[in-house]
Amino acid sequence: MIDEPFVPTLFPYLISAMDQYYGVKQPFKEVHVIKRKQLPSAALKNKKMKILITTFWEYPFIGGLQNYITSLKTGLENLGHNVHVIAPNHFPSNEMEALRNRYSEEFTQFFNNRYGSCNGKILHNISKLYSFYMMLKNIDLEQYDIIHAQDRYTANVIGILNQSFQKPLLFTPHGFMTQNRLKFNLMEKGSIEEIYFSAIDRQAIKNANQLIVLCDVFRPILENIGAEKNKMTTVYTGIDFGGGKYQKKDRKKTVITCIARLRPRKGHKYLFKALSLIKDKLKNVEVRIVGDGEMRKDLEKRVSDLKLKNVSFLGSRDDVPKLLSESDIFVLPTTSDTLPISIIEAMFTKQAILTTNCGGIPEIIKNNYSGLIVEPANPKQLAEKLLVLLRNKSLRTELAGNAYGFAQQHLTVSKMVQKIEETYQSL
After folding, report:
1. Could you please report the per-residue DSSP string of 285-322?
2. Same domain, 193 and 119
3. Which of 107, 201, 253, 296 has the fewest CB atoms within 10 Å, counting from its CB?
4. pLDDT at 185
5. Is residue 107 part of a domain?
6. Shared domain check, 273 and 138
C-alpha cells in the first residue's frame, strides 16, 4: 500500500473548498470510480442482515460513543443480525503510522505548492482520512447489507468507497460538528479550518441515505447544511442500566449528585455558586461530584474559596449505579450538551432531576413533570430550584417516578435497537 501512487484529490470536494478559499483556479483531475452493476435484492423485511458499523475513533475504548456502538452491536446481534465494527486501531499500528507519515509528507508538499501554506489541523485530519481509506479499500463492502457510519469522517471515507457498491449508508452525528467548534471559539469564523471541516460535514450528509439523529435539536442544524427532513430519523440513545438492583434507603442526609466530566461546558462553577447562595440551608445535605477532568484543581479551589464543606469530589467511579441509588437529587448544570447519558442514568434510578435547557435535554425531561429545568449559566435559578427540591420530598418522588416511566418506555437499548433496525429495513 505504501507504494501505491498518491492522489491528493481523492476527496475532490475538500480540495475544491480550499481552492475557493485561496482563490486557486488551477484545475485538478478528479478520481472517477467505476460503479458496479447493482443486482436486484430481496426485501430486507425480517431478513437477518450483515451490518458494518464504522468509526474514526478507537474501539473498544471508554466513552459515550464507544458505549453506544457496543449497545447497538449487541442489541442487533441479539436480534440475529451479523454485526462487524471497524475502527482505525483494528489495523496494524505500524502500517497505519507508516501511511499517516507518508501522507503527511505528501500533503505538506501538495498544500505548500498549491496554496503556499499548510494548516496543521487540516494536514493531520486529511492524512488520517487518506490512511483509513487505504486500509478500508481492502474490505469487501459487497458482503454487507447495511453500513452505519458513526461520525462524519467515516461517512466521508465510506462514501468514496461506496460509490462502486451503492450499499445503504447511514450516518449518526454524535455532536454538532463544525458548528459547535465555532460556538466555543475552538475554530475561527471564516478561517480555512471552517471551510475545510464544513465541507466534511456537508459531504457526510450528502453521502448518507439516512441520518439517525440522537435528538430533534440536531434537525435544524443538519437541515442548514443540506439534510432533507424525510431523510432524518430521531432515535433516542438507549441504555441498560444496573441501577434497579439497589434499593434506596432512608438516610438522615439528603444527597445531591452531579456526574459529569470536569470540563468548562459542564457548568460545575454555576452549581457551586448556586450552593453558596443557599449555604445556610444545606445543614443536612451532602453534595457528591463524580467524574474527573482538566478542571478538577480549579473546581476544588473554588469549593474551598466558597467554604462549601459539604461538597466532595469522588473522581471517576465504576460504581455509578450504586452511587445514584444512594442519591436523592441529580443535578447537571451543563451549558452545552446534546443528550447526556448521565441524565438517562439518573432517570432509571428514580432521581429528582434538575438540569438546564440545553440541546436535547428538554426532549426527555419535561419541566415540572419529570424534572426541573433552568436556563444555563444561571446560578440564581439553580439555587431557587434546588431549594424547592430540598424542601419538598413528595415533589422529588413525583418527578422521579415520571422520569423513570419515560425512561422505561423510550430510553432502553431494546427500544433504540428496534427503531434503528426498522430504519435499516426501510432502506
Report:
1. EEEEEE---TTHHHHHHHHHHTT-TTEEEEES-S-HHH
2. yes
3. 253
4. 79
5. yes
6. no
User: How far is the C-alpha of 361 from the C-alpha of 344, rounded, in Å?
Assistant: 10
The grid coordinates listed for 151 are 461520525
- Whether residue 67 sits in one domain with residue 203: yes
Per-residue model confidence as pLDDT tens digits over 149-194: 999 999 999 999 999 999 999 999 988 778 878 877 788 999 999 9
Question: 145, 51 in Cβ contact below 8 A?
Answer: yes
* Residues 56 and 153: beta-carbon distance below 8 Å: yes
Give this prediction's pTM: 0.88
DSSP 100-129: HHHHHHHHHHHHHHHHS---HHHHHHHHHH
> Look-up: residue for cell 464507544?
66
Give the list of residues 6+ apart from residue 238 with CB closer than 8 angstroms, or none: 71, 411, 412, 413, 414, 415, 416, 417
Q: Do 191 and 324 belong to one domain?
A: no
For residues 254 and 286, the answer to whether their CB atoms sit within 8 Å is: yes
Q: Say yes or no: 257 and 268 in one domain.
A: yes
> pLDDT tens for residues 348-360?
999 999 999 999 9
Shared domain check, 300 and 183: no
The H or E element that residue 13 is part of is helix 12-22
Q: Which domain holds residue 203?
A: 12-239+415-426
Q: Is residue 203 located within the same domain as residue 327? A: no
The C-alpha atoms of residue 138 and residue 140 are separated, in whole angstroms, by: 6
Query: Of the candidates 394, 376, 200, which has an alpha carbon nearest to the alpha carbon of residue 274?
Result: 376
Angstrom distance (rounded) from CA 350 to CA 361? 17
3-state secondary structure of 408: helix
